[in-house]
Specification:
Number of helices: 8
Helix content: 25-40%
Oligomer: single chain
Number of strands: 32
Radius of gyration: 47 Å
Distance between the termini: 84 Å
Strand content: 25-35%
Structural class: alpha+beta
Length: about 550
């Protein structure tokens, strides 16, 4: 029978006695109790013989490599050996046996196993199952929406077919009326032709007649036929097709609600509709600085008023004349557009599609510039529009006052359809002053509607439903002149910026109306219109100088 001791059982490496209970930590040698003395008698090197069981349980000391740790220092949270204790390094510290620590750790391991098996693992299994359910729901919903879109498309095609049918029917009706008139005249002309032919025959017969009585009684009828009946001249109908606006068709067809992802985390629901363009709580720079300034064709008597960003490189501006001008950051005039009526634009804004919108106070209209054409999209009776902004949903928010200047309100329009009116607070009191003074408007990222009411010396902020949230009338304590806000805008952080023209500065508030700071170091000269680009750079118009200043106020 073959002997395979090394595979069968651990043996003393000197005498091959099975089950050695000792171990030399330096020589890495297994020893039985009998051979321990013999091994230690070898003085050619150091030896550290310990119980083999102990070698497996207790860790070696990190500071004293020849020692094993029997204790654990609770304050230092490390294993310690006898030499560590005697060195007084851990004097006064509470120490427990290493076996006790192992016991506690095993209890913690057991608890972790139970939690993993009984709670965490089932939750992950449930999440995995829910993902499959959501995947199926997503597919089912997509199919449902596809069917709905196709059905809506069919309905739209039907409406187009009905419109085509109406046009054809109207054309047939016009043609029928014209044909009836032509048929009637044709009959009359043919009767006359027949009568004339008969008269010619009778006269030829009379001409050859020798009957004196008949010839002498002849009377001419040519005078009756010299009056030729009127000939109808028809203006043939024309079909004048309107230009097909693909973007308008897309908007009118409908919309898909935006993607909204909700992540469940430890029982809390965290909305995550998408990445923020900038981190929250972006720090302000200590000293705001002017990046560039653009000298426009305005200034002095032709005051510069409103500004609106087309993109990060171009801004629209307007003032006291009837022109709206687009400038780039190279200080170049890109193009100019004259208002449809020839009146001055009261305010301007840029839609999400990059189209310019302006209000015409005298004409009582809101207009949109599409390429080279200007279309009136809203005509108002009894009210006059002042200031305008484009909301995140694509609606227009328009501030207006009555013709007699006794009431003011904010109206939300979807296209040319009035959707919402904001005029009074919960107590029935007017939210806005009614006089003909500036009331610039801006929508915040939380969908609050902010109006800078110059006459009321206040920024009035209502929520999306039109309920008053707060009124800002200036910082708690100030040595400046009275606060009369003009231009207003909001940035990616939800902060509100309003121009204080009389004090030549900008107020910055948080979205709850708390004053944060001024921008008053950029040599602002009667600032009025405000807007921000996608990088939160601020554009400010100066009434008298005709300049648009681009200011950096974030780090």
């Amino acid at each position: 029978m073959d002997r395979c001791w090394a595979q069968d059982v651990l043996r003393c490496q000197l005498c091959e006695t099975p089950g050695p209970i000792m171990y030399c930590a330096i020589c890495h040698t297994h020893l039985c109790k009998v051979c321990e003395g013999e091994h230690l008698s070898d003085e050619s090197q150091e030896h550290k013989v310990v119980l083999f069981k102990k070698w497996g349980l207790n860790p070696k000391c990190s500071k004293h490599s020849m020692q094993f740790c029997d204790l654990h220092c609770e304050e230092c949270d490390i294993p310690v050996c006898v030499e560590c204790v005697s060195s007084r390094e851990h004097l006064g510290h509470k120490k427990v046996g290493i076996s006790k620590i192992v016991e506690h750790k095993k209890e913690a391991i057991q608890r972790d196993i139970q939690e993993l098996e009984n709670t965490i693992y089932p939750q992950y299994q449930e999440i995995a199952s829910n993902i499959q359910v959501q995947r199926a729901d997503l597919n089912k919903n997509s199919q449902k929406l596809t069917t709905a879109i196709e059905k809506h498309g069919e309905d739209l095609h039907k409406e187009i077919d009905i419109a085509i049918g109406k046009f054809k029917s109207n054309l047939n009706e016009i043609e029928s009326k014209q044909l009836a008139i032509l048929d009637k005249q044709d009959d009359e002309i043919k009767r006359s032709i027949s009568d004339i032919a008969q008269i010619i025959a009778d006269l030829n017969e009379l001409l050859n007649s020798n009957d004196v009585c008949v010839v002498s009684a002849y009377k001419s009828m040519n005078a009756e036929f010299r009056r030729v009946p009127p000939i109808p001249t028809f203006s043939l109908p024309r079909f004048i097709p309107r230009m097909i606006n693909k973007e308008q068709i897309y908007r009118q067809f409908g919309s898909l609600s935006p993607l909204s992802i909700k992540t469940e985390e430890h029982g809390y629901i965290i909305d995550s509709p998408g990445a923020e363009p900038f981190p929250l709580d972006r720090p302000l720079i200590d000293v705001p600085r002017i990046i560039t300034d653009i000298s426009t064709e305005h200034g002095k008597s032709n005051e510069l008023e409103s500004v609106s960003c087309l993109n990060d490189f171009e801004v629209w501006a307007c003032g006291s004349d009837n022109m709206m001008s687009l400038y780039n950051l190279k200080r170049e005039l890109v193009k100019s557009v004259q208002t449809k009526s020839g009146n001055k634009p009261t305010d301007i804004a840029v839609t999400q599609n990059g189209e310019l919108v302006y209000t015409d106070y005298l004409d009582k209209s809101v207009n949109i510039v599409r390429n080279t054409l200007i279309e009136t999209i809203i005509s108002i009776r009894g009210w006059k529009p002042l200031h305008v902004c484009c909301s995140f949903s694509g609606d227009l928010l328009v501030v207006m006052i009555t013709d007699d200047k006794k009431q003011a309100k904010v109206v939300r329009y979807s296209g040319s359809t009035e959707k919402q009116t904001i005029q009074f607070d919960d107590k029935g009191q007017p939210l806005y002053s009614s006089e003909l003074f500036t009331k610039y408007i801006s929508e915040n990222k939380n969908l609050d509607i902010c109006v800078a009411d110059y006459r009321a010396s206040a920024v009035v902020v209502v929520n999306q439903a039109g309920k008053l949230r707060f009124t800002y009338t200036g910082p708690p304590s100030t040595t400046k002149k009275p606060f009369n806000p003009v231009g207003i805008t909001t940035d990616s952080q939800g902060w509100i910026l309003t121009a204080d023209s009389g004090n030549h500065c900008i107020h910055i508030l948080n979205q709850d109306g708390q004053f944060l700071c001024y921008i008053d170091n950029c040599h602002l000269d009667y600032p009025l219109g405000l807007c921000v680009d996608t990088k939160d750079n601020l554009f400010v118009t100066e009434v008298k100088t005709g300049k648009v200043k681009k200011i950096q106020y974030y780090m």
